[in-house]
Amino acid sequence: MSYKPFSTSLYATNDSAKELVIDWLKRQNIDAWVNPDQYGIDVLSKDEFGVEHSWEVEVKHNWRGPRFPFNSVHFSGRKKKFIKDPSSVSFVMLNSGRTHLLVVKGQDLASADTVSKDTIYTSNEQFIEIPVTKCAFFEVNNG
To answer: What is the pLDDT of residue 15?
Structure first.
């Protein structure tokens, strides 16, 4: 089993996606901010009732346009460490143009299958596989 090595340049390119998700959450009356722990989950939030939630954010560069082109979504298996309390975590994926996003709830992540696949960076990498039917889709600028 292998995982893609950390890339400072890819991280820097995609890091601004957190701010887009924070703005999107704020339009839904959810107070959100970048997690000060650079090794932790990306975004922390608290809704109007004081309920805390955390969000892992990534950009899917081969998702172009509003429609997600695959039957399932894959998140790196190493991100399972963020699913400590499935009711208080979600994973968010933005398309390459950052105009649309999908959200997967922690409960669906916790019960999802793990698959192995080769990528351009690794062989036999572990991924959490989510059927696209378990995803909620949103336009970034319209909440």
So the answer is: 82
Q: Based on the structure, what is the number of domains in the chain?
A: 1
Helix H or strand E segment including 90: strand 89-95
In this prediction, residue 143 carries a pLDDT of: 62
The CATH number that applies at residue 57 is 3.40.1350
Tokens of 41: 């989950």
Q: Which residues of the chain have a pLDDT value below 70?
A: 1-14, 142-143
Closest C-alpha among 136, 95, 131 to residue 115: 131
Q: For residue 71, what are the domain limits?
A: 8-142
pLDDT at 12: 44
Beta partners for 4? none
Mark 119-130 as b/e (b = at least 16 C-beta within 10 Å): eeebeebbbbbb
Strand 72-76 and strand 89-95: the pairing is unpaired
Query: DSSP secondary-structure letter at 99?
Result: S
pTM metric for this prediction = 0.87
Bridge partners (DSSP) listed for residue 60: 95
